[in-house]
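Exercise 7 asks you to align residues with tokens for two separate proteins.
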Amino acid sequence: MATTTEIQDIYVGHSPDPDDAFMFHALANDKIETGKYRFHHELQDIETLNRRAFASELELTAVSLHGYAYLTDTYALCACGASMGDNYGPMIVTKGTQSIEDLKGKKIAVPGTLTTAFLALNLCLGGKPQTPSRDAHQRGDAGTFTYEVYPFDEILNVVERGEADAGLIIHEGQLTYGSQGLQLVVDLGKWWMDETGLPLPLGANAIRKDLGRVTMEEVTQLLKDSIVYGLEHRQEALDHALQYGRDLDNRMADEFVGMYVNDWTIDFGERGREAVRRLLDEGHKAGIIPDPVTLEFIG
């Protein structure tokens, strides 16, 4: 007598931006066979997903590498799904031309204290937040600058209105800040490359350990299949991703996706893994991340 395979639900969290949409297109739109796994997608900004991961709410979730430093007991990193800034990354922008030194003592609008952008900002400016990043809060003092948390897609407007001296921008704001008359002070991905010779690992996908090793491996493989499908059906995946590209036309969306969905996304590789280790080690040595981080990759 034939047996019916029991469906296993996998709740997935990822950001509502073009690169994540591109990455998850095949899973979200039934382009690949997923066997017994049924995926449910929840789109939220990365800081919200970082915070939700503390409660282990999602089986598979996008996380900031900074956020992952606090999640190693409950999640492992998928070897695929990385967002890697290879000599580019989050940016600090202002209304007028300024230098990195000019940012000292200023108020900076940030997209969340668990974001990798926030960690890189502190490493660049020598900041050490008085309130730990793990504690949810809206504003604080990092010693060399003060900061206030805003939704990532509001930061350009906040700086343009003069409500903060500078803004730490992620996602498509890296391509569109000039349209609001803002000036680049420093690209933190380029700064990190100059400092270390390594790409800046920004985001990843994490899978919950209580699923068991077999399920973790199988779900990670399906994520990899989805990424490969998008890269092999680029325009189709771009058409899906464009609905999440605030103020991006097809050309800019293609450029943005190319920045963050590429060979690094198929697999971190040894250099990518070393970049993650170095980033989190530097964060620990700077006193921003409280404990040393032991990494576990699946796939």
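Second protein for Exercise 7:
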Amino acid sequence: MLENEVQEIAHIDLIDEDLLQKDRTKGIVHIYISPEDNPLEAVAFLKERYAENHIPYEITLTGCEEQDWLNNWKQYFHPIKVGEKLLIRPTWRDNVNTENRVVIHLEPGLAFGTGTHETTRLCLTALEKYVTDNSSILDVGCGSGILSVAGILLGAKSAVGVDIDEMAVKTARENAVLNSVSDKFIALHGNLTDKVSGKYDIVLANIVADAIIMLSKDIRNFMNENAVYIMSGIIDTRVNEVLEKISDSFNIREKFLENGWCCLVATAK
């Protein structure tokens, strides 16, 4: 059953009860296509594929204001307190009570990393415990740049972020400027560490279990002596697998858990 699979993967009830009662023999798919990309070509393509596979279908075209789906989510994104020291402030929220916390001004754009997800919050909570005034940070899969920016605002001397998504790299650079830390931040477009050089005091990897396992094979080459390796984005059902894969190379110092997600803090053996 679909609801059982969602519960197993996400550990929460994501499906509205009214939706569960609806007819499951039919599906509705919404596809958003920019007008300049010629939606009629997409319709022709879909019609051919449905007919080829003998799938009954009905296609309707309606206009959609770009702001409806690009910006409406912002109304649900409020300032967020993270850990003991941080507060994430969306740029469109004014008159925020900072409560003397370090404020991260954030415009996430289309990149991952708003602080609303457990994996990012766990990583930030771990980061604030280990960052010092002398820390250099490597942020693998930097997304919006929230972790790198937070590290610098907490006192780190420098941060390098890398992401495979060019839009994420652009967003990370913009957020560094927004928080007046661009002089200490470098964003690279690359896959894991293929464009990275140097050694760092803190390595952040808020990605997924498979990518962490792959990254961990040679990440020690980028770590200073006594460096801390913070891994997040690991669902609880795969924690043991990750621990087994990295056990020959790393000692686990701490484990943070929230709503079925895990963040590990490790040092090299």
